[in-house]
Amino acid sequence: QVRLVESGGGLVQAGGSLRLSCAASGYIFSANAMGWYRQPPGKQREWVATITTGGTTNYADSVKGRFTISRDNAKNTMYLQMNSLKPEDTAVYYCNRVWGTLNWGQGTQVTVSS
Predict the structure, then answer these.
(1) Cα–Cα distance, 78 to 20 (Å, whole number)
(2) 43: which DSSP letter?
(3) Residue 54 class from Cβ within 10 Å (0-12 exposed, 13-18 middle, 19+ buried)?
(4) Average per-residue pLDDT in the chain?
(5) DSSP state of 26
(6) Within its chain, how far is the Cα of 31 from the centroid?
C-alpha cells in the first residue's frame, strides 16, 4: 500500500526555520517527480514546490528564496527546508507525487506566530 508520511512541523516564531520530511513507500520513489503542498486554515490546498527525478526544482512565488526542496532517493524521503518563516506560511503541509496523485497523507501542521 502507498504511504506518504509528513513530519517535522511545529510552532515557530516569525523568522524561524523548520525542516519538513516526507517518507514515501509503496511505489518507486526515485522514478517520480515529487512536490510539497499546503493548506492554510479556511483555504484550498496550494502548490509550494516541486522537485523532478533529476533534481530540478521549482517554487511558488510566495516561498521562493526562503524554502528549499530536496530529495534523498536512497531513503525514499523528500525534504522542505523552510527559512525566514512568516505568519502567512501557517498551514498543514502535504507531500505527493506530481504525476499521478496518490492518496493524501495526514500532513504536518506548521504554525508561525508573529
Answers:
(1) 8
(2) S
(3) exposed
(4) 97
(5) S
(6) 18
Q: Are 105 and 20 in contact (CB under 8 A)?
A: no
pLDDT per residue over 28-67, tens digit each?
A: 999 999 999 999 999 999 999 999 999 999 999 999 999 9
| C-alpha cell recorded at residue 97 | 507525487
Record the cell numbers describing residue 56, joined without a space: 530540478
The CB-side HSE value for 86 (13 A sphere, CA atoms) comes to 9
Residue 69 grid cell: 526542496
pLDDT band for 14, please (50, 70, 90 cuts). Answer: very high
Cell representation of residue 8: 517535522
